[in-house]
Amino acid sequence: MKSKRAGFSLIEVMVALVILVIGLIGIFNLHIVAKRASFESFEQTQAAYLANDILNRMKLNKTVLANYAGTYGVLGSETAPTSCDKAGVTCSPANMELWDIYQWRWLFSGGAEINASGAKVGGLDSTTACITVGTDNSVTIAIAWKGIQGTAGTTNTTSTCGSTLGTKRRLYVLDTVVDQG
C-alpha cells in the first residue's frame, strides 16, 4: 500500500522563492524609476517657478524691460548690488533691474535652501537662464539645467540656452508679452 505525502517538496518551495524574488526586484526597480521621475518633475516645477518669478519682476519694472535680456549662470563670488528693499534707499529702475537679476540668480544657485553644513541645496544642477526681449515687448525666458540621466535621443530646438549640457539637458521655456500699459 502506497502512502500519500502531505506538504510541499523542496523544489516547489525553491520555485516559489525564485518567483517571489523576481517580483520583489521588479517592485524595487519600479520604486527607483518612480523616485527619479518625481525628482525630474520637481525640477521642472522649480524651473517654472523661477521663470515666473523673473517675469513678475520684469512686469513690475517694465520701464527697463530690455535691460533684463541676457544669459545668466549661477552666482559665483559676485557681490550683491545695493539692495532696493532697505528703508530709505531710493532705487532707480536700473538699480532695481540689477537687484532683481541678482536675487533671481541667487534663487537658482540654491541660496534659498542651505543644509546644516552650509551648502546651497535648493537650486537646479548647472543652471543656465536666457532672457530675450523683442521690440514688441515679447519676452522669452528659457531655463536649462542638467537632469539625472540622458534623454532617449530627443532634442529640443526651441532654445539654444544651456546647449552645452549635452544629452542630460532639460529645458523650460516661457513665451509671453509684457503689456506696457
Give a written overview of the molecule:
The chain crosses the membrane at residues 6-28. Keywords: Membrane, Transmembrane, Transmembrane helix. It holds the Pfam family N_methyl. This is Type IV pilus modification protein PilV. It comes from Shewanella yunxiaonensis. With 181 residues, the chain is α+β, with helices and mostly antiparallel strands. Helices cover 37% and strands 15% of the residues. The chain is built from two helices and four strands; from the N terminus they run H-E-H-E-E-E. Strand 2 (128-133) and strand 3 form a beta hairpin. Helix 1 (10-60) runs antiparallel to helix 2 (93-108). The N and C termini lie far apart (102 Å). 19% of the residues are buried. The mean pLDDT is 84.
